[in-house]
């Protein structure tokens, strides 16, 4: 946190301040997140970035799989709202004078990728990973999900309920995907597509923010269904669909044996290992880093 605050203070002092919700703003955030991640992993831990989840070779296939998963989840949420009569398309999203729809959409695609990259590097690459090393996978998942949910507390229309909803439907999902693959690219792809399809594609609010580009959607009905001013993420369909996806991701993580026990449990197991027998990896410890695309088996 000190590094994040210090880096941003230095950039402000250098005159690199930029208004929120601009490409320059999200580019700066992504650069700061990557810089702090590199400092933490390379200098403080003596590891390479790929060991912490940023292997460039895994980026193209896993981003594609994550993007498809995120798009499918949000499409299912919006489809369910439409089937219940709570969502309809009113037309095209209004644009500022002088801008083109293709150009604006391209900017939102780039900007939302950078948003997803920065948030996943911070929340999964740093926060979840270090909590997991010291407290185990389950506690790290719960704490990081709650912190992720309440990091949206100051967004327009945010409530305690919306923060808890994001923690469950989003925080658990991306944490489990990271733990299952030990790679950040799959969570980044999910995060990217989730925001892109919810806002620019379907024209709904993204965590209380308007970032439309293509369709202009209208949500009608009670807040428990539509999410109210915060957007679909605070509604029941998102909680059900996103929660189900998160549970499946957790099951996949467990079946892959990627649950790390707390240090005190690992120490006890090592003490209980009979003398003369190889201790081996503790039960549930992460397997060696994998290469290539990691997909669930059918």
What do you see in this structure?
There is one protein chain. The protein starts with a helix and ends in a 26-residue tail after the last helix. The protein has a two-stranded antiparallel ribbon with strand order 1-2. The longest helix has 35 residues, at 101-135. It is built from ten helices and two strands; from the N terminus they run H-H-H-E-H-H-H-H-E-H-H-H. By secondary structure, the protein is mainly α. Helix 2 (23-44) runs parallel beside helix 4 (101-135), helix 4 (101-135) packs antiparallel against helix 7 and helix 5 crosses helix 6. It has one domain.
Q: Which strands sit side by side, in order, in the main sheet? A: 1-2
The end-to-end distance, rounded to whole angstroms, is: 41 Å
Computed CA radius of gyration, to the nearest angstrom: 20 Å
Helix content: 55-70%
What structural category arises from helix and sheet content? mainly alpha
Q: Write the element-wise H/E pattern from the N-terminal end onward.
A: HHHEHHHHEHHH
Low-confidence stretches: 280-298
Tally of helical segments: 10
Shape: globular
- The figure for the number of domains is 1
Write down the overall mean pLDDT.
89
DSSP summary, beta strand count: 2
For the report, how would you describe the main beta sheet? 2 strands, antiparallel
Strand fraction: under 5%
């Amino acid at each position: 946190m000190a590094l994040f605050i210090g880096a941003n203070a230095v950039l402000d002092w250098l005159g690199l301040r930029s208004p929120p919700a601009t490409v320059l703003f999200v580019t700066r955030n992504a650069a700061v997140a990557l810089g702090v991640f590199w400092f933490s992993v390379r200098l403080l831990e003596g590891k390479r970035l790929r060991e912490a989840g940023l292997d460039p070779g895994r980026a193209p296939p896993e981003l594609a799989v994550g993007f498809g998963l995120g798009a499918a989840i949000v499409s299912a949420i919006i489809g369910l709202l439409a089937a219940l009569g709570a969502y309809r398309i009113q037309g095209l999203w209004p644009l500022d004078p002088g801008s083109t729809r293709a150009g604006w959409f391209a900017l939102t695609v780039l900007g939302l990728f950078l948003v997803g990259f920065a948030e996943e590097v911070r929340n999964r690459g740093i926060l979840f990973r270090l909590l997991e090393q010291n407290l185990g996978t389950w506690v790290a998942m719960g704490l990081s999900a709650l912190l992720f949910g309440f990091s949206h507390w100051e967004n327009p229309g945010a409530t305690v309920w919306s923060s808890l909803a994001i923690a469950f439907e989003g925080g658990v999902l991306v944490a489990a995907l990271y733990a299952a693959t030990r790679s950040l690219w799959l969570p980044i792809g999910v995060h990217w597509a989730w925001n892109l399809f919810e806002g620019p594609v379907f024209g709904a609010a993204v965590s209380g923010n308007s970032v439309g580009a293509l369709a202009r959607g209208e949500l009608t009905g009670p807040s428990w269904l539509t999410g109210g001013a915060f957007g679909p993420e605070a509604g029941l369909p998102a909680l059900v669909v996103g929660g189900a996806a998160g549970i499946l991701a957790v099951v996949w993580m467990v079946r892959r044996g990627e649950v790390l026990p707390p240090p005190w449990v690992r120490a006890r197991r090592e003490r209980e290992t009979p003398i003369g027998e190889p201790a081996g990896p503790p039960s549930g410890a992460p397997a060696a880093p994998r290469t290539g695309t990691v997909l669930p088996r059918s």
